[in-house]
Amino acid sequence: MTNDVSVFTILDFDNVSKSKSDFFHEVSFLISGSLMDEVKPKEIESAILEREILGTTGFGNGLAIPHGKVANLKESCLFYVRCKHDIEWDSLDEKPAKYIFIILVATNDESNNHLKILSKLSYNLMDPEYQEKIKNEKNSENLRNVIEEMFTD
Amino acid sequence: MNIIAITACPTGVAHTFMAKRALEDSAKKLGHNIKVETQGAAGIENEITEEDVLNADILILAVEVGISKRERFNNIKKVEIPIATAIRQADAVIKKIEEKLNQ
Question: Taking the domains of chain B in order of start, what are their residue ranges?
């Protein structure tokens, strides 16, 4: 079910952002580039910020899952960024975040295929075993396998 | 206890499902049955039926947006909690419900 590779992209394994706002700004450009400019960086950044204002997406243990809704996107998709520095995220456990998943929800996609896959990811992200695997995995191919397992588990 | 729950958040792709997982894990750990309906971006999944409501002792609403089909729950005891509480403190929520229902 996850043959469609566009659902998940590892953007950066060593992101050097030092604050949440820098992170959102920079990552919005990275995402836009990886989507071949299908969505403009500004749209991505404001979608994520809009959601973040409603409540922190840092759910604890160094993990965060910022997300937002954008139009002009064919299918919902997921990106991963690991940060070099701890980023203050106002997380639920008040600890900084370092391992960041970004979800973009395509508001105009009615197939919902990717959406269901991504909701499995969110569901499985609560699992401490998966959290450890994600944090410790240094190899992008192996990380991809872990994520794919989470999509289907 | 038989617990039913609904989770829903503004975007409906992350916290809705994280809260579902947290509530399921805690309920199982504490020896209760639970069914969690999600009202997310892909619509209603794992929908709570009339029979589920009849058999349930309590409804947990971990919702931060208006939910659909709320009329199903007119005649059941319910607790409303912020979705962040479901994610971080599901054990405490369920223990508190145990206490209240045993009084």
Answer: 2-102
The one-letter amino acid at B79: V
Cβ pair A101, A121 in contact under 8 A: yes
Q: Is the ipTM reported for this complex over the cut 0.95?
A: no
A47-60 burial string, b = 16+ CB within 10 Å, else e? bbbebbeebbbbbb
In this structure, the strands spanning A97-106 and A63-64 are parallel
Question: The pTM is what?
Answer: 0.92
Instruction: Domain of residue A43: give its range.
Output: 5-152
Looking at the domain covering B2-102, what would its CATH class be? alpha beta
Q: Chain A within 8 Å of B65 (Cβ-Cβ)?
A: no
With a cut of 90, say whether residue B67 has pLDDT above it: yes
Number of domains in chain A: 1
With CB atoms and an 8 Å threshold, state whether B84 touches A55: yes
Question: How many angstroms separate the CA atoms of B20 and B14, rounded?
Answer: 10
CATH number of the domain at A33, please.
3.40.930.10
